[in-house]
């Protein structure tokens, strides 16, 4: 399993949400694409990945129902 799969599978296992897992897959790919294209470096890449996880927690903590 590649590092991208670890991200979306982890989100799915922790949240039980296929929707959030799909969002994670897309955002992870886009963030890594931007880093690969040289738009930003490693630190910005990691901060964006972390922000995604924080947003998922906020969404779920506020009772948003996602399947």
Describe the secondary-structure layout.
Layout: H1 3-15, H2 18-36, H3 42-61
Helix pairs in contact: 1-2, 2-3
- Strand % is under 5%
Helix share, percent: over 70%
Q: What's the mean pLDDT score?
A: 91
Low-confidence stretches: none
Globular, elongated, flat, extended or rod-shaped: what is the shape?
globular
Task: Note the main sheet.
Answer: none
Q: Please report the distance between the alpha carbons of the first and last residues.
A: 24 Å
Q: What structural class do the secondary elements suggest?
A: mainly alpha
Q: Which series of helices and strands comes N to C?
A: HHH
Number of strands: 0
Describe this structure in words.
The longest helix is centred in the last third of the chain and has 20 residues, at 42-61. 78% of the residues lie in helices and 0% in strands. It is built from three helices and no strands. The chain is globular. The chain has helices at 3-15, 18-36, 42-61. The protein has one domain. It is mainly alpha-helical and 67 residues long.
In summary, what is this structure?
The protein has 67 residues and is mostly helical. It has helices at residues 3-15, 18-36, 42-61.
Task: Please give a handful of descriptors for the protein shown.
mainly alpha
């Amino acid at each position: 399993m590649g590092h991208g799969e670890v991200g979306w599978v982890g989100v799915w296992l922790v949240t039980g949400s296929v929707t959030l897992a799909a969002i994670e897959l897309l955002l992870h790919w886009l963030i890594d694409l931007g880093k690969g294209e040289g738009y930003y470096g490693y630190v910005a890449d990691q901060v964006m990945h972390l922000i995604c996880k924080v947003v998922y927690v906020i969404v779920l903590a506020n009772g948003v129902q996602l399947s």
